[in-house]
Structure formats: structure tokens, C-alpha cells
Amino acid sequence: MRTSPATRGAYRATVAVLGAAVVALGVVLLPLPGPGWLIIFAGLALLATEFAWAQRLLGFARERVAAWTRWLGRQSWPVRGAVAAGCALVVVLALGAVVAVTGVPAFLPEPVAALVADVVPGSER
Question: Which keywords does this chain's UniProt record carry (predicted)?
């Protein structure tokens, strides 16, 4: 399909749309607990199969993640703990925002739902 001139454009367009959708999904999932960055890298890898700019961006992102990992590995335990606490705070704030917008999830047990409703401003059961 990639070698036929008639279908090459359609193939590239399909890769572009799917890759962009995967990257967009990863961006939406970034503040939530889960594999947001992994999904973004998967979308970039998909785009990189057809686009040189995506190959360069994926290479740059990999280098930055590796540099961050090396930097964090050289830091003391208090700095690592502060980074972990900061990440946990971002996750808690993101979940609080989701609950404030959508309400307390129905699957939570009643005592937990009551606690969440009391803690998160604007949330309802």
C-alpha cells in the first residue's frame, strides 16, 4: 500500500490522523494517573513511521526523558521525594477537578463518596 502512488497519499493521511488522535488522547490523559506520556510516545512513534519531523521530535523527546531520568537519579532522596510529592499533588488536583466537574463517581462506597463530596468543593453525590 505504501509503494503504490495511488494509495500513498491516503496511507500517509491515515497515519497522520491516527497518530494525531493517539497523541491527543495522551495529552488529555496527562494529568490523570496512568500512561499519558507512554500514549504520547506511541502516537509520535506512529507518526514517525511516515514523517521526518515526527522522527526528529520523538528523538528529541527521548533524549529529554533520558536526561531528566539521569538528573533525577543523581539527586538526593529529599529531592526525589519532593518530585514524587509534586507529581502526587498534580494527580490529586486533577482528580479533584474531574470530580468537581462530573460529580462523585457512583461506584464509590458510600463512606468514601461522602468523604470525597465533603473534601472536593462543588462536587455532588
Answer: Membrane, Transmembrane, Transmembrane helix
